[in-house]
Amino acid sequence: xxxxxxxxxxxxxxxxxxxxxxxxxxxxxxxxxxxxxxxxxxxxxxxxxxxxxxxxxxxxxxxxxxxxxxxxxxxxxxxxxxxxxxxxxxxxxxxxxxxxxxxxxxxxxxxxxxxxxxxxxxxxxxxxxxxxxxxxxxxxxxxxxxxxxxxxxxxxxxxxxxxxxxxxxxxxxxxxxxxx
Length: 180
Hints:
Layout: H1 5-15, H2 23-33, H3 46-52, H4 55-61, H5 67-85, H6 88-98, H7 103-110, H8 123-130, H9 140-152, H10 160-169
Helix pairs in contact: 3-5
């Protein structure tokens, strides 16, 4: 186990040449770099996203953006975020547009509005209280079906669980399956 910052850096530097981008990782990267496929209302944001991705990851995915482009985008994003953070109405509007599902949860905390209840729970306590299985025990029937499908019938796993999750996490439009 690395015990210092330098040891952690060395660990990742040693592993970096062995990393590979799976088909699913490449598909997710396409979705991140081309959000208009999954969310048509989102304008082109590829350059800002790319400037946040490490150079070794860009190489794995065959992504090219120059250091000059990175610097321009980083400075523009810094100025934009400074402006957004200086005005709470603008902050609320931007986050409500970018992440509509989290804005109602996030904004009261950002604005310093106290919670309706001071009760806090661990994830396990909340799962128990609200009747959710812990993740390692969730969806066992679906897991068995997927295992039979993949290892018994030698078919690609179905998208059943992903489709079920769309109501919570958004649609998969534009995301290419790992097998496709």
